[in-house]
Design goal:
Layout lengths: L9 E6 L8 H15 L3 E8 L8 E4 L2 E7 L10 H10 L5 E5 L17 E4 L9 H20 L2 E4 L2 H10 L7 E3 L6 H6 L9 E5 L8 H7 L7 E5 L5 H10 L6 E4 L4 H10 L2 E4 L8 H8 L3 E5 L2 H11 L3 E4 L5 H18 L9 H19 L6
Parallel strand pairs: 1-2, 1-5, 2-4, 5-6, 6-7, 7-8, 9-10, 9-12, 10-11, 12-13, 13-14
Antiparallel strand pairs: 3-4
Helix pairs in contact: 1-12, 6-7, 6-11
Length: 377
């Protein structure tokens, strides 16, 4: 007879980062952790951080215990040796260990799975996004295969990610569940747009070459009368500003180093069109958040974006080839702006983080059932 399902779970999460550090993985982890804690579960997050002011701190944020470890600026992969050690040590102290990101050495904490049930959310992109990152990932592949094999359950954020993972690690499909990312729909829709902005194009994401923000800037000379706002953090910031200046767009392109979540919600509500020309995504969170805000989207035609457009954006997205030049991209952006002018903002239903958290918790319970573990009372 299997043990009764627990009313309260003890969950340890290992993540390459956590807010106020920003990124898709960080946002996913925080949104789910907060909701689990609000529901009564004991949630502890072990996270890396590049911020010296946060290293070594332990805080309780929205009911979640967050302990931070120093992460190192390794090209193409987050490296935090102390975080790996802490994750391995913590594995036996709770009911479930949930490890995030194949593309971070902290993922090696999944190797502790022999002592306790482990769930892995890989946020998998395949190889790295630069020559140096691809070399690093090539050397990492053996360890990566071990961590994928060690997980009792693998949660992918899209079917496209799940297919890529199965292609590179045959046999994992039998342990894989797809739970899409969500959006803070109520908070986004309640946000006030910035006043008197005029036609606004928005790009959101890490300021890294693979995100393709430079290509959006290059298209803006052919989108007269509109301004571009780029929101993110990363090494491309100064290069994007310089590119805008060379193209004579300094007064129409604004690169924000990073913004707090409420401010981002206001930009989502202000924008008429969100553009993502990313070359690699496991899901594509920004387009879903934009759709929640009523914003049309222009997206690179990659597997994750095709899936998001089909399943969640309901005709409000335009897909363009990933290698599209400035003229083609500008044409798509102008068309989306004109459609907004004619028909107003879109109204679509997108996944909500409440649903994501509930489905993630159900995975935890299924893993505990399979292991014959009753969890905390």
């Amino acid at each position: 007879m299997s043990p009764a399902r627990p009313d309260r779970l003890r969950v340890t999460v290992v993540s390459p980062g956590y807010p106020p550090d920003r990124g898709g993985v960080e946002e996913h982890v925080a949104q789910v952790a907060r909701r689990l804690a609000a529901g009564g579960d004991a949630v502890r997050v072990l996270a890396g951080t590049p911020d010296p002011a946060l290293r070594g701190r332990e805080d309780v944020l929205d009911g979640v215990v967050v302990r931070r470890y120093r992460s190192l600026p390794t090209p193409g992969m987050t490296t935090a040796p102390g975080l790996v050690v802490a994750g391995l040590r913590e594995a036996g102290r709770g009911d479930v260990l949930h490890v995030h990101s194949y593309h971070a050495l902290s993922g090696l904490a999944a190797l502790a799975g022999r002592r306790h049930p482990v769930v892995l959310t890989p946020h998998y992109h395949g190889t790295g996004h630069s020559a140096a990152a691809r070399v690093l990932h090539g050397g990492y592949r053996h360890l990566g295969a071990r961590l994928v094999a060690a997980a009792d359950r693998v949660v992918c954020v899209s079917a496209a990610e799940a297919r890529l993972l199965e292609q590179d690690f045959p046999g994992v499909a039998a342990r894989t569940t797809v739970i899409p990312n969500g959006a803070e729909t109520a908070a986004i829709r309640a946000a006030d747009p910035w006043p008197e902005q005029g036609p606004t194009v928005l790009a959101v994401g890490r300021l890294e070459p693979y995100k393709g923000h430079d290509r959006v800037v290059e298209a803006m000379p052919d989108v007269p009368g509109a301004r571009l706002v780029v929101v993110g953090r990363g090494p491309e910031r100064d290069g994007l500003r310089a590119l805008a200046a060379r193209l004579g767009l300094a007064d129409r392109v604004r690169v924000l180093d990073d913004v707090a979540t409420p401010e981002l919600h206001r930009w989502l509500r202000t924008a008429d069109v969100l553009v993502s020309m990313s070359a690699h995504e496991a899901f594509g969170m920004a387009p879903v958040e934009a759709a929640a805000a009523g914003c049309r989207t222009v997206l690179s035609d990659i597997p994750a974006h095709r899936e998001v457009a089909r399943e969640h954006l309901h005709g409000s997205a335009t897909l363009v080839p990933r290698t599209a030049g400035p003229t083609l991209l500008a044409t798509a952006v102008r068309s989306a702006l004109e459609e907004t002018g004619r028909e107003g903002r879109v109204r679509v239903r997108v996944p909500d983080w409440d649903d994501v958290a509930a489905r993630t918790r159900e995975v935890y319970l299924e893993v505990l059932d399979a292991a014959g573990v009753g969890g905390a009372a």
